[in-house]
Amino acid sequence: MNYESLWQLYPLAREQLVNIKTRSATKLKGTECRVLEILIAQQGQVVSKRELFEKVWGERVVSENSLTQCIAQLRVALGDSGKEQKFIKTVPSHGYMLFENVVELAQIEQPSKELPVVSTPRQSESETEFESVKEYGYRQQFKLLLALVLAIVLLFQGTSAIHRWTFSLNVPLDAWIKVQQGERGFFYFDNKASKAMYKYLSKNSNHLSDSPVTELLISTGVNHYYLSCIYRSETNGDQQVKNLNFSLRENFYFIGETVRDVCR
Questions:
Q1: Region for 39 from its dihedrals, namely left if φ exceeds 0, alpha if ψ lies in -120 to 50, beta otherwise
Q2: Is there a contact between 65 and 72 (Cβ–Cβ < 8 Å)?
Q3: What's the CA gap between 171 and 136, in Å, rounded?
Q4: pLDDT tens digits, residue range 206-256?
Q5: What is the pLDDT of residue 184?
Q6: What is the DSSP code (8-state) at residue 191?
Q7: At 243, is the secondary structure helix, strand, or coil?
Q8: Is residue 101 a contact partner of residue 3, using CB atoms and an 8 Å limit?
Q9: Please, are residues 225 and 248 in contact by the beta-carbon 8 Å criterion?
Q10: Element of type H or E holding 17
Q11: Residue among 240, 241, 197 at smallest CA distance from 218
């Protein structure tokens, strides 16, 4: 049969099969496009099923029905049918033949009669789309996981910062009370133990009567008294500081004697 070319095949286009008269375009699957390329390369000749399987699917194991479906879809795209076989003829027990001057390969100026054997078959468009969707899904899962990790880190840091801030607000701080007696100043924590020590050293004893101490600080911890005395040295007149600590169970008299002896 000798027809004027009715179709052009653009293998790399989105819609590969174009009618040159109506300019209507038809989209083919990857395997369908590959089968048609091989039939165009040997148009007017019978191409065996074995050759088609080798060049289209390579080493992949597929049923003969895969090739039959490809031919059927190509006939639909060309406006042919299995009954009429105007463009693609089935040669029983051999293969298929594309009549000459029906479809031309648009991107090849001089089509070769022998197309190279492709060891790795071209992926169909549906397979390519599936791989793209799967890759996109992996990327989204990674982004979600990264966002979750960052959220946990920020939550932990925020909780720690709030704890440190509220802890400092909730911890009661001891207030200092200052009492000036002549040239000597007393500072003591506003608690029972510190107040008792202050009263003893300032009012109920004579330990500091002739002492050069100008300021005395009295504070308490869990188990100890902490005293700091500021005084003028009797040897050189320089201001000195001494820090002392005693058990809360220590005798007041001993504490007073120690302060008098040390802070000079």
A1: alpha
A2: no
A3: 52
A4: 888 888 999 999 999 889 999 999 998 888 888 899 999 999 999 999 999
A5: 92
A6: S
A7: strand
A8: yes
A9: yes
A10: strand 17-19
A11: 197
> What sign does the dihedral 153-156-158-161 (CA atoms) show?
negative
34 vs 79: CA distance, rounded Å = 19
Residues present in the chain in total = 264
In the block, tokens 């590959």 appear at 34
- The DSSP code sequence of 57-91 is TTT----HHHHHHHHHHHHHHHT--TTT-SSEEEE
How far is the C-alpha of 49 from the C-alpha of 44, rounded, in Å?
Answer: 16
Sheet holding 88-91, edge to edge: 46-48, 95-98, 88-91
Over residues 1-19, the pLDDT tens digits come to 444 558 888 888 888 888 8
- Residue whose structure tokens are 């996109």: 136
Whether pLDDT at 107 is above 70? no
* Strands 17-19 vs 46-48: parallel, antiparallel or unpaired: unpaired
Q: Copy the structure tokens of residue 149.
A: 């990790």
Instruction: Using the CB atoms, write b or e for 204-233: b if 16+ within 10 Å.
Output: ebebbeebbbebbbbbbeeebbebbbbbee
pLDDT in tens, 189-199: 999 999 999 99
Question: Residues 165, 158: contact at Cβ < 8 Å?
Answer: no
Contact 86, 29 (CB under 8 A): no
d(CA 199, CA 177): 12
- Under DSSP, is residue 186 helix (H, G, I), strand (E, B) or coil? strand
